[in-house]
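question for whoever is on the cluster today: can someone run the full assembly for these? two chains, 543 residues total. i dont have access anymore since they changed the login thing
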Amino acid sequence: MSAAIEVLDLRKSYGGQEAVAGISLSIEHGEIYAILGPNGAGKTTTVEILEGFRSRDSGSVFVLGSDPGSLGIHGSAWRNRIGIVLQSTSDAAELTVAETVHHFSHYYTKPKDPDSVIELVGLTDKRDAKIRTLSGGQRRRLDVALGIIGAPEILFLDEPTTGFDPEARRAFWELILALKAEGTTILLTTHYLDEAEALADRVAVINAGKIVEIATPETLGGRHLAKATISWSENGATQKKISENPTQDVIEIAARFKGDIPELTITRPSLEDIYLTMIGGKE
Amino acid sequence: MTTFRLGLLRGNIEIKQFMRQRESVIFTLFFPVLLLFIFGSVFKDTIAPGVTFSQYFVAGMIASGLVNSGFQQLAINIPIERDNGALKRLRGTPMSPIAFFIGKAILVFLSMIIQVVMLLAFGALFFHLHLPHSGALWLRFTWLVLLGSACSTVLGIALAGIIKSGRGAPAVVSPFVIVLQFISGVFFVFSSLPSWMQQFSALFPLKWLTQGMRSVFLPANFASQEVAHSWEIGKIALILIAWLVAGTFLAMRSFKWSRQ
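^ ran it for u. tokens below:
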């Protein structure tokens, strides 16, 4: 079976400015794939080309075997198999949650049960509330409900948790992992590192329209190979040692002390350190 | 589900959203009746033997009601729905665009019926509006309403495609409609307007629609008071059809699902 999403040398310019400058990626069925990058890196442009909302200048794109840029009369059948959660929306303010989810279920040939989708996104208490009365996080969960009501094979999530409090974000992550467990392929854009780390099987870091690296969150930027920094207090000063064998080194240092090594820490670069190095390379 | 059934469901959703916004209900549905009360109460003069200004005005207001329910409503609401992401969300689903437009047409049709019935009822009750007294006049009234609404709808969609932002839409559309009403013989007796204004307004469909409505609601001999000394029914039909065709073409060209 071919990849769920296949992109080769994708390019798109706006007024001479290259927003997407040659992106290639391949996303497997059932994978959660995160596109990570700062604002204006080209994340949304890339995803909107894959969703069929924007045209491209060059490159090839296949989503579920079809080119979203030339769907023609097959557009409806193709859209029946994908789900899209756009960046912030404020539509349908006067409808209730239940009305909206039930209505959208009619668009698809094999929708999920609307009431269980409302349950899944945790809006059962709000099912009869007007959408304009929902909080930002509740609105976003409704967006996801509308994105998954058609039981999509691929779900696109564009910066899904922007503006969430930490608790709402955790709840949202569980929802996304539950969808993955059902076999949904998920393409996620985010500028939150912890989100990519918690959810993604693979991460593509993009900056200025180009892919900087594609890796698992654990190995991004050679993080797993990076040397550890040992830090402790000795002779009234903070000592530091960059180490390839921190366990051995700590044993040696410990030998110099009778008990605990004072103020001992062993750190490896966090995903954030790696990421900032990657996107800040030009500064 | 067939596109047609989906269109009916869209119509249901459109009506729910419309009816739950009190401002839009008042502005769109009751505004023409309110204007009728004000103008009808202020101007009680007779403009020809047996014809009061308020009768003349009701005919024009019914034509304006069609502009309100189609053109004005769509040219304001579609840009708002484009800005708030509603259209883009729909575009990302398998729903056929045809179902979307069926839904809009249902909303326009319903608000048009409500307005026309209210104007006829209030006009007949308070302002001596004579309802058409022959089957032939009712038939003419029906095709004028249907053709006028269709024109109004496609031109509203066409203008919506040109308007850049939802927030600015009312500021573009409302003055345009008001000016059109002033120069097309709604607020003033058309034959009393300067001839350059008459000729300019003849470029737009509202002038022809109001003239058609006068032919339905005013005595037959009032035709001699018209600028052309005739109702020009055939010409009205032709011009409205031409606008319908041009408007459909423009609407298909200009419609956009999202701000780009």
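summary bc i know u wont read the tokens: The longest strand of chain A covers residues 17-27. Residues 227-267 of chain A form one domain.
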